[in-house]
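Internal tracking record. Fields below are filled automatically when a chain is submitted to the structure queue. Please do not edit lines marked as system-generated. If the sequence contains nonstandard residues, flag them in the REMARKS field before resubmitting.
Queue: standard
Priority: normal
Entity type: single polypeptide chain
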Amino acid sequence: MAPKIAIIGGGSAYAPGLIHAFIQQADVFNGAELALMDVAADNVDMVALLGRKMAKAAGARIEITGTTERKDAIAGADYVLTTFRQGGLKARHLDESIPLKYNVIGQETIGPGGFFFAMRNVPVIKAITAEMAQLAPNAVLINYSNPTQIVAEAVNHFTDVPCISICDQCSDDTKTILKALNRPQAQVTLEWIGLNHATWSTRFEIDGEDGVAVMERHLDEVLAREDVTPRTKRQFLLAAAYGRLPNSYMQYYYFREETVAEAQAAPQTRAQSIMATMGSYYAHFAEQVAADTPQLIHVRGDSLFGDWAVDVIRGLVRQDGSIHILNVPNRGALPDFGAERVVEVPARLELHGATPLVQDRLPSEMVGLLKMLAEYQWLAADAIWHEDRRALEQALASNPLVLSLSLARRMLDEVENAPL
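SYSTEM-GENERATED OUTPUT FOLLOWS
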């Protein structure tokens, strides 16, 4: 039986590329329904219409619907893919700008910015899982919404809904590193473990050679290049210092002062720069809706070339036991963390979830920070789920980038009173 896939956030600028990725695998999703849901009626209507034209042009038998009613999209679904941003980019701007006033990094998944984002997204996830239990009791939640780790901790601890949280940072980091090495076509093997946006490689090869050795060999020339971002240069420096490839988000911990100074000096937040480009995406979508044969070339993200979420759902549909780097309950796979903690680790897909593969311990110089992050993210999930202000303060104070109860209280007061 062909699956129904509800996409919550289906009117976003990412969604047309996501639909394109499903169409590229139409043999697996033959007869499937993509039920797009978004609170922005005009956007979801446009994306659904564009998706239908794309499917027809490709000869793909995929039904695409659009609605603003979340329960209608979820009802009878086999998979629910969450890819939404509660509060939109205006709220993200607050997440990024408020912490900077207190000399703490503002970022959508890291530090207090990620905490504020979770305060908006987790309650929506809570409602979605309740609707799934009622309207789609056999469905699997595929969570793409940030902050991935906190969302996964909440769903796995407080609901019975099967949940796989996903992140494509592994793919993004690989592309960025190869670009810095001037080897964009090189073949990469990368496996890493830890927490979402806080991982270290266990296997990393570039064209069969040790990837860290390649990065070390080219370190000086990469550091000298003006076209390589400071973020990527720091990833090279951390790889050379620790002998493993770090997730690029690790810069916010190991280069804390530098990343804060850069963000404070920037003329606008990342949210503001994205907002300035959003009109161009929807203008392109409107042009392609009017075209005889849509040619999608301008979307947010990399979905035009395949999508991590679609690959995971394909594996679940085919029950092929494929292995992906996923965020799932540990169950003893990473001996450095409790069995109940959510970890990011290679995992084998099953009918209604994924089994993490057992790994070796991480070195002490790497795992200490990760243990702090794991406990912080669990505290955040618990406090946000139960709407406990005292627990919210304690959770935010335990974040490695905050470590101050008074600071946590001041930032919480400000974000709660900030107008959107």
